[in-house]
Amino acid sequence: MENWSIEDVERMQPTVVKQIQTIVSKNRIGHAYILEGAKGTGKEKVMQFFVQLIYCENPTKNVPCETCRSCKRLKSSNHLNFMQLEPDGQFIKKGQVDELVHALSKTTIEKQRKIYAIHHADQLNTSAANTLLKFLEEPQSEITAILLTDRMHALLPTIRSRCQHFSLSPMSAGVLKQKLIEEGITDSMASTVCKMTNQVEEAINLAKDEQFGLVRKSVLKLVEANGRSVQDALMCIHEDFGPLLKEKEQAEQALDLLLFAYRDIVAIKASPIADCTFPDMISYWKQIALQTTYEQLSKQLEMILHAKQNLHKNMNRTLMMEQLMLNLQEGFTFV
Question: What are the residues whose beta carbons fall under 8 Å from the beta carbon of 329, sequence distance 6 or more?
Fold first, then answer.
């Protein structure tokens, strides 16, 4: 998240950014806001954009300049009128909120509005939530609260009712892929990890994980081997998958990627320009698509899903993969 630019925030949450820009440009800043969104939606960066736009001395086209005194002080976490609160352990405690309220009541040399951000606001314990509620019930014109949460339902209804809400959307695959490519990830790997997660940091870590790269390579090798003969597929399982199947997480990744591979084939069969998990395999997918019916592909997808269920039943993973290859090639029956 540290590498995100203002352009990233605008690209990721265009609707919320426009709402914020309208509020600030028309000087209609309220006393309390909730930024709600799942992990990876950029809540912190949207909050930082909001705060920076409020304080910026020279905004251009409703975008912070990033060079004025206020922008620089925010970047260095040195702005006296901006305060942040995070959980102390599992919860945000009453004492923390008391200290925050006390700090907000002090006079500072800054002339600007005071803003406080509460991260993981759903983790306010009962006493802390009631203290915050009391403070929100007596709004002051030059103090603004920004509450960040991925579980808005866990906030007190009375707190929710006193805040304006911004709902952040999950990052689209297209935006995530572009961000990954900008981070130096190859187009093919970016396409793959976008199907595994919609969180930037997790996607980058996965794309740079050598072990995940090995799982991806082994799965594609297995699909090609299975296309030749079941004997080649079984040999591939023993030679390439042996070490991977020892860890349940890697075995699960392998089955997920195998499922995505067969979904690619279905997509290519329906449209030659389909968006694929493995764009580096499109030529091969087209060959398989020509040789396979939709009914066969549907059954093959069912078999892989069945294998995923068996994985959680603690079956012998090597035997499970062997049976899956036999089913994909011949049997079309579950065990």
Answer: 226, 229, 230, 233
